[in-house]
Amino acid sequence: MKANSSDRPVIRPLPVIDRARQVTDALADYVEDARLQAGDRLPAERELMAALAVGRSTIREAIRHFQALGVIETRKGSGTYLLKPVSRATIHMPLSFDAAHLRDALLQTLEVRRGIECEAGMVAARRRTAKDLVVIEEKLNEMERVHLEKGTSGPEDLAFHLAVYDATHNPLFRQLLEQMRETFERFWEHPFDRQDFARRSFPFHRTLFDAIAAGDAEAARVETLKILDIVEEDIKEMSK
Asked: In what residue span(s) does the HTH gntR-type domain sit (predicted)?
């Protein structure tokens, strides 16, 4: 009995080689192997074309891919520069906001921050080491010093929170939340041109530290929510 032709294995065509993907992988490997850091210059377009044996359009497509991820930037008349370290295994999740509606974008960001930052505080309370606590308290003391001296402490506040994220020993907490702050870097320097933005949250940074030091995950969540609730109130009030 003859086998039904429909039962025969299917021979599928070979996939088309994605040259742009190969170029992005090659560039990522080069950055890693050369140990390039943020601010370092990448090889010129012609050099990449010759080394990788591809056309200009393929190189530019790969460059656009990395630009969209916020990994590199091209400076007219100067060249292409690395903004963040990258390797083939690096996962990049660029954020996109409608800058024309800053208030709404900030509130949307805050909704996401609540989930991530509360979890970060809880994880930090469970995983922090003695060394982590020393670093967090150093950042907190500096934040309090500057706040009492100037009435505001934006950069020091950020340094405190980054130290908390580091205490989770999960690098994604710091990367995600730092990226959100970077997106609004100029805004956070002088939010709504108000030096008193979120000033009322100042005392809760000490109680957040106390909760983390005590290993109390639930208390860390509660204190984080107190800080973010004040941030939300001030965004709504000061953006009227």
From this structure: 17-85
Token pair in block for residue 190: 């002088």
Claim to verify: residue 117 and residue 168 sit in the same structural domain: yes
Domain containing 25 equals: 15-80
Give me the residues paired with residue 82 across strands. Answer: 72
Long-range contacts of 36-43 (CB under 8 A, 24+ apart): 36/82, 36/85, 37/82, 37/85, 38/82, 38/83, 38/84, 38/85, 39/81, 39/82, 40/81, 40/82, 41/79, 41/80, 41/81, 41/82, 42/72, 42/79, 42/80, 42/81, 42/82
Angle at 12 between CA 10 and CA 14, to 5 degrees: 160
Q: Does the residue 3 lie in any domain?
A: no
119-172 per-position pLDDT tens digit:
999 999 999 999 999 999 999 999 999 988 887 777 888 899 999 999 999 988
What is the chain's length?
A: 240
221 in any annotated domain: yes
Q: What backbone torsions phi and psi does residue 190 show, to the nearest 5 degrees?
A: -145, 75
Shared domain check, 29 and 141: no
Sorted by sequence, the CB contacts under 8 Å of residue 230 that are 6+ apart come out as 198, 200, 201, 204
Distance CA 26, CA 47 (A): 13
**The pLDDT of residue 46:** 92
In degrees and rounded to multiples of 5, residue 24 shows phi and psi of: -65, -40
Determine the Cα–Cα distance for residues 161 and 135; give it in Å rounded to an integer.
11
* Whether residues 146 and 35 fall in one domain: no
Q: Which helix (H) or strand (E) holds 81?
A: strand 79-82
Entry pTM: 0.66
Q: Which residues contact 104 (CB under 8 A, 6 or more apart)?
A: 98
